[in-house]
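Data availability (excerpt). The following record was deposited with the supplementary files.
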Amino acid sequence: MSDAVPPSWQAVLHPVLTTPEARRLGGWLKAEEDAGKQVFPPRGQRLRALELTPLDSVKVVILGQDPYHGPGQAHGLSFSVPQGVRQPPSLVNIFKELQSDLGIAPPAHGNLEAWAQQGVLLLNNSLTVESGQAASHAGRGWDAITDAVVAAVAAREEPTVFILWGSHAQAKAARISELREGSRHLILRSPHPSPLSSHRGFFGSRPFSKANAFLEEHGRGAIDWRL
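Predicted structure:
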């Protein structure tokens, strides 16, 4: 992994990034790219979520599985795409639920950086993927790194909202001992916003209003979900 770790996350990630497993991940990624494989997001954007959302500003964590694997889609934030890129189906459904929940009309773009800058950590479990190959970098070493990120947020005293869409995100959070019912954090679980599962309970789950109510109750300030 060649991207520089943002300052606020360095102490958290230094122990895991100096392990043999992390070094193998970095070497493997370089070999994949040297072999001509296209890896998304491009270098310089793989830690974008950590860059835009410092550890001490995290209010909400939204966990994704891995980056979008189409050209030009992934830019380091879970579920987000850059300005001018067509919104993927899962993101379309997220915006539908946002409108149903808070009355916010779906935006013309899918760039979620404004959320990240307010303290919404848009984290994927794997931070890279091969072009056209979903989950192709799962099990290659990213898990330990992103587990450390989630654990660091969970260990903080500040009450935080964890929005877990789908079984994959829920399984990841279950491995973090601090994320237990009755803790100081709010854990919101629902099916994934994918068209395959969104009608099984994602629609109507109202994560945005629930998150804001919790944040305001604990004096942390609501998120402005408008884009």
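Summary of structural features: The beta strands are 39-40, 60-64, 120-124, 129-130, 161-165, 186-190.
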